[in-house]
Design goal:
- It contains 11 helices and 15 strands.
- The strands form 3 sheets. A 9-stranded mixed sheet has the order 2-3-7-4-6-5-9-10-11, with helices on both faces.
- 31% of the residues lie in helices and 19% in strands.
- It is α/β, with parallel strands linked by helices and 322 residues long.
- The structure holds threonylcarbamoyladenylate (TXA) and magnesium ion.
């Protein structure tokens, strides 16, 4: 089992040294927990792929702490500066042209690199002690639900890593929005997240092309990690909207919002009735229900746009069977 570290200054110093010496560890961000290592150290990077069971053709996100650090690993176009000033630190990943210092191992041979500056204060404390960019895909085994609490990482990867830095429950709960600026005048949305395509288009004053909804999920992938099936619990999942299914023994129903009278096996995501809270709780509830031995989980789809798009996207991939 991994040791769960509380974020004291001495633990942060030790963990930074451990990462610098080629170790990998789970760390909190505001979206989901990441499996972190020195992005410029091939040994650390190969440990990340191995611990996740991630195919070598699926590239990693590199986390940076400043635009200076970013400029050492990627070319930053004007549109990147605009998005960074408006959305960083925060849940936005940009795909930029990489510099030579970033290896093909990190980018799976692509000429671009995915970069993000997280806002989580504990991430920032750690990154401030690390003189290198931090590669960190979500800290889940390949294909499974992403972790939003230290205990989720312990349950999923505790046997593979030595340390988990505890930053509490993640504030956003869904992975970052991904926008590609590899052609800076033609920005493309590659993954939905809590930052919407509309707000990116408004900031850039040009339309960001939504490649997620335009892409038939059975057609060739637009981003190596945009698999039809992903984020899936082991228990079969069925989606519904409108009136829920009949209550049956050994089947769970997970509603978006709290209802006045919920019986046995009925659960909800948001107490306050907001999609933000539903997004924050989704992965936690799916992982908890997945451990309760139900034969099936029914999950309510939101109908709203915005964060609703990101939630629907994750729910549909979680329910898909390859
Ligand atoms: O919120 C997040 O983004 C979290 C936290 C830990 O930062 N990280 C995360 O990483 O979700 P990961 O590896 O699970 O998802 C990154 C996605 C993958 O689908 C990967 O294929 C895609 O980004 N990606 C990475 N580099 C890329 C590139 N150069 N071009 C296109 N897609 C890329
Ligand atoms: Mg992931």
């Amino acid at each position: 089992m991994a040791q769960i570290l509380q974020p004291s200054p001495s633990h942060l110093n030790d963990l930074a040294d451990y990462l610098q010496s080629g170790g990998i560890a789970a760390i909190p961000t505001e979206t989901v927990y990441g499996l972190a290592g020195n992005a410029l150290d091939p040994t650390a990077v190969s440990k990340i792929y191995k611990a996740k069971g991630r195919p070598a053709e699926n590239p990693l996100i590199v986390h940076i702490k400043s635009l200076d650090q970013l400029s050492s690993i990627a070319d930053i176009p004007e549109s990147g500066i605009i998005l960074a000033s408006q959305f960083w630190p925060g849940p936005l990943t940009m795909i930029l042209r990489k510099k030579l210092i970033v290896s093909d191992q990190v980018t799976a041979g692509l000429k671009t690199v995915a970069v993000r500056m997280p806002s989580h204060p504990i991430y920032q404390e750690l990154a401030g002690r690390c003189p290198f960019p931090i590669a960190a895909p979500s800290a889940n085994p390949f294909g499974y639900v992403s972790p939003t609490k230290a205990k989720h990482v312990q349950q999923q990867l505790g046997g593979q890593i030595s340390y988990i830095l505890d930053g509490g429950p993640c504030e956003k709960g869904l992975e970052s929005t991904i926008v590609s600026l590899s052609n800076p005048n033609h920005p493309e949305l590659l993954r939905y997240g809590t930052i919407t395509a509309e707000s990116l288009s408004n900031a850039l004053k040009i339309q960001v092309i939504d490649k997620v909804s335009r892409t038939n999920r059975d057609s060739p992938m637009i981003s190596p990690g945009l698999l039809k099936q992903h984020y899936s619990p082991n228990t079969p999942l069925e989606l519904f909207s409108g009136t829920g299914p009949e209550i049956q023994p050994s089947v769970a129903i997970l509603y978006l919002y709290k209802k006045p009278s919920l019986s046995h096996n009925q659960y909800f995501l948001s107490e306050q009735g907001t999609l933000e809270e539903a997004a924050r709780k989704l992965y936690d509830r799916l992982q908890a229900l997945d451990r309760m031995g139900f034969k099936k989980i029914y999950l309510e789809l939101p109908l709203e746009r915005g964060i609703g798009d990101a939630l629907r996207d994750r729910m549909e991939r979680a329910a898909a069977r390859a």
